[in-house]
Every structure is written in structure tokens, then in C-alpha cells.
Amino acid sequence: MRNLPIRWGLSLPNRGILFDLTSVDALMEASILAEKSGVFDSVWVGDSLIHKPRLEAIVLLSAIAARTQKVRLGTICMASFPLRHPVLLAIQWASLDQVSKGRTLLAVCIGGGDEAELRAFGVKPRERVERLKEGIGLLRELWGDEEVNHKGRFYTLEGYRVVPKPIQKPCPIWIAVNPDRTRIGDIGVERAMRRVATLADGYLTDVVTQEEFRRRWDLIQQLAEKSGRDLGSFETSIHGMVNINDSRRVAYEESKFYFNHYYGPSWPTEELINVWLAHGPPEQCAGLIQDWIDMGITTPVLRFTSRDQIGQVHRFIDEVLPLLNLHQGRSG
Question: Does residue 14 contact residue 26 with C-beta atoms inside 8 Å?
Fold first, then answer.
């Protein structure tokens, strides 16, 4: 049975630099404020290489590590994971864990499947899931103490001892996945949740209804129990969008500007916005965020869809946080 505290995360729009939503200095300032506030437990950045370019995640997290002391440092999510060679990633991420004194949190996913980006790295679209599974396993081998002798579908290593190692033992790897049940069916969702239940140290989702999340979490617990895993310290996270403004219309319009540049003009749909974007006055923002907590989210990671990142962080702490009941949804 879980009984975890709510641990707030701040997600930084590192793609926003490309369309004047933010700046490098603002991202650094927001990271420092998140830590000094005592409210935020973690700082996160997005990842993509060619398809949705941005400041590279590991480089940016290294800069944040040098300016902070306590907050965990995560990826939302490492969409390029199937493209990166596990040996290089193992060395880079272990170095980041060393630099940050053991504060990293690697959340990985299969990415969006953009064919041009995959082609640039010699990866076929249908390989992404298997590359994810093999890559996670190989990272754990490379970070272990034994000599690595690995012969898989994509990677072969015989007699290797790769250093440096992460400070954290084990170094946490989460899986980020948000399967569309209407498109891939119950069987497809079960496959995705099985990977979470058997391979991951935590679960990250984004746009999801309360009902759908509970179905997934119930499934994860059932599958983990069958495989003998204890989920007592297993965090469940949502990457949620927030825009606090006394005018709900202004909050919506600023968020749409953000979405149009970040994801394209056709996504998210209005239906998805209703369950993913907490926007408007503090009371209305608190309502949706409370729904996330009540459905079983232990680690809400907030992305502020505003040019004023610092002002939004302050308003969340001062005006939204006091409205929340943080004793809901913490077990299960």
C-alpha cells in the first residue's frame, strides 16, 4: 500500500526559447526559485532532437544542477531514448548524476515516431518499443557493478566495464506513456502498462481523465503483484498544464499560443484541454489540479503556459496551493 507525500515538480519550457516564450536566464531563474520556495521537489525539461527542437535536455539539466542543491532533475520525457545509444547515454546520465550529487530522474518514452527524425538516426518506426525495452535493461547493466556481456536485438557488448557510474543505486528510470485506448484497444493499453509495471521505477502520463488513469493504475498494480514487485515507493506523475490569470479568457488565449507553437495548431483538442489545462483564476486552477491528486497522482509536474514563468510560480505557491487538499489520492 502506498502512502506517499505529494511532491511537486516544475516543468520548464525549453522549447519555448525558439518562439520567444522564455529565455535561458528565465529558465535558470525559475529553477532557482523552485528550489528556494521549498514547495517544488523537482525540476524537469522536455526532450526532442530534430522533430521538436529545443535546448538539449542533458546539457540544460547540467546547467540547472550547477545552480541548485536539492531539487531532483528529470526529463519529460526523453523522447529521443530509442535514438540514443545506451552506452553514450549511460555515460552522460551517470555524469549528470555525479555532477548533481545523485539528483537525477530519467523518464523515458518511445517518442512521437517522426519518420524524418528516425531516419536520421537509422531507426525504424516499429523498433521503438523494443529499443525502449532493451535500452532500459542495458542501462541498468551498464550502471551495475558486473562486467557487461550483452547480446540483444540492437546492441552487443562483450566484456565491457563502463564508467562513471551514477551515485544513485539504483538510478531511477521512469516510463512515460499515454496510450489511446480508443485507438489501440484494451490489449494495447495492457502491453504499455505491463512495461511500466515490470521495467519502470515510476509512471508519467499527461492528458488523461480520472476514470482512465484509475483503470491504468489498477492494471499496473495487478501486473506488478503478479511479477512480485513492491510498488510502495512507486510514484505516479502527470505532466499538467497551468495558466493562472484572473481572466479565464486571457489564460486560455495565452495557453493556445503556447500549444500552437509547442505542439502544432491541431493539438490538443478542446476535449483534451478540458482535462489537461488548469487555467483561469486560482480557484478554477485548483479545481483541476485537485482532480489529478484525487485520482492517485503523487507527483504533479506543472508546466506554466505563460511568458511570465516567475510570476506563475509565485501565484501557484501563494494563491493556488493553499486551496488544495493534499491528503487525497495518496494511497492505492
Answer: no
